[in-house]
Amino acid sequence: MTGPHDSPQPGIYPQSRFQPPPGALELLLVRHGESEAYVEGKPVPLVGGQADPPLSPEGRDQAERVCARLAGMTIDAIYVTPLQRTGQTATPLASRLGVAPVVEQDLREVYLGEWEGGRYRKMVADRHPTARQMFTQERWEIVPGAETSASLATRVHAAIERLAARHPGQRVAAFAHGGVIAQALALASGSRPFAFLTVDNASISQIVVTGDRWIVRGFNDTAHLEDHR
Prior knowledge:
The protein is an alpha/beta fold and 229 residues long. It is built from six helices and eight strands. The mean pLDDT is 95.
């Protein structure tokens, strides 16, 4: 029996691991594997006006590695974009899990206007003044004819909201592109537009979507590739 002057036993409050709120979407954002190199003077084939190169041999190996890692998780749905490099990256996971990928148009890569067909890579590699200005100002529309940053943000936000509505309380793997993943993480964190533009091929980033709140849980995880660098 405890007397009136006895001290109560102290509570014990250990640190706990993060648990997604009930009904939240766990979204794994997987960048596609390395695609084939652009060869100057040989434009990459276009789909819907956008460059559509296949994976390189290295990219196919990266796809196997990232999908082997994801196969150890509970994945309720797989999304890809209309561009073949995302579908090719997702194929090993879809085969392992027996889950058919669904195309989400609004997760396609940034439209690069006059720099489509592979030219963007050359202009960035050559440090063209327009490319430098784009990175300094962190605005895609600096590239002639390119999609505006506002348009990209709007469609990426809409796509992720749709996924959250379709998959409450589930974990989804979305195979997408560097510019799109960077935009999603910028929206979730309130960061500068290009703060996350360094995402690597076949990396895994993660956000949790619960109502109007987006939580960054991971960025550019490449542990599955480390022994191959």
